[in-house]
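Appendix B. One record, verbatim.
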Amino acid sequence: MHNSVALLADGAATGPPAAGATGTVPLDATLPVTMWVPWEAREWPATTAEETAFVDELSALAGGRSAEPRRSDITAVLNALRSGTTVSQLLDVAPGLRADRLCGAHATVEARRRRSENAFRSILCGRTIEDLERHGDAAALLVPVLVERLLRTADNDPRNYRRVLGTITRQVVDAHHDVAHVETQLSRLQPPSEWGIALGRQLTQRLMSRAEFLPRRVGVLTPIRVAALLGERLELSGARGTG
């Protein structure tokens, strides 16, 4: 289970490749997210509360309507959330964007993220190899390393399947707590803040990229996870770029 996507999925690079490098990156790679935003930003991601406010403001501007998004709309929403950009700031720098398409962009990614998260939770709660077989493909879009570990256990050591599942459950809980702890600290800061930038880098370059981290909202998805959810396969070229 090594489906491959490229490093650059939605306007954020996951680190510079070696000079002249080509090929693809497996979804189970743990790669940091290097912030790349084409406008001035505070340099740390939106918190859960800020993402909720972002979506609510978009919905109000769109009159509660949602339109089919373009890929560029998805890119704009993801970059805004990763950089803590508000809706008004985003529309100031990109006035051609439409609020209804931005609503659709968030809703599209969120629906696929939620479907994958629910699939993995069904595996954790069901605790049987049959649940893994039923939900594994959908769950692997978010947590491919964990699903592959369970599949290997089911094939090679089925008697220890529930023990391994319990270990993975604890790792997922710990990863969530680590992210939530940093987010709580960020929620108390106001830009400009060097501490906020440092915490933001810890969040995006380490915690969000952990194989055990199960993203619970769009704003904490890494580019590779977004690409997997959207069914994209992007080739790695010799230089950074935007998606």
